[in-house]
Amino acid sequence: MKFAYALLYVEDVEKTLAFYESAFGFARKFVHESGYGELDTGATTLGFVAHKLAESNGVAFTKADARGPAPAAEVAFVTDDVAAAYKKALAAGAAKVTPPKEKPWGQTVAYVRDLNGFLVELCTAVES
After folding, report:
1. Does residue 128 fall inside a structural domain?
2. Over the chain, what is the mean pLDDT?
């Protein structure tokens, strides 16, 4: 078995794809009119599912709210330049959470929230 997808349930898939393209530089991999879209993010695909599509599958969930606390999950993107990625995300409309900071294990990490309220970690690779 392998980890293939991380899916976030959102109100507007098209708007979310456009935000991730602008804020983080990803390209669209697949979009379907039913309310589903994927980004080309590497080995694991980040996808977005419209609330209506998720509901049609019989899935119960709490909707993310950009005005409330972030959901208890995050997506993380590795970059060599966290400060530049953080500035780019903010310029594209991401909400500030925490600016870049070096962790005790040597990794640099920053946090923003996307337009849906999901937490996005921008970080350097962990040296093992």
Report:
1. no
2. 96
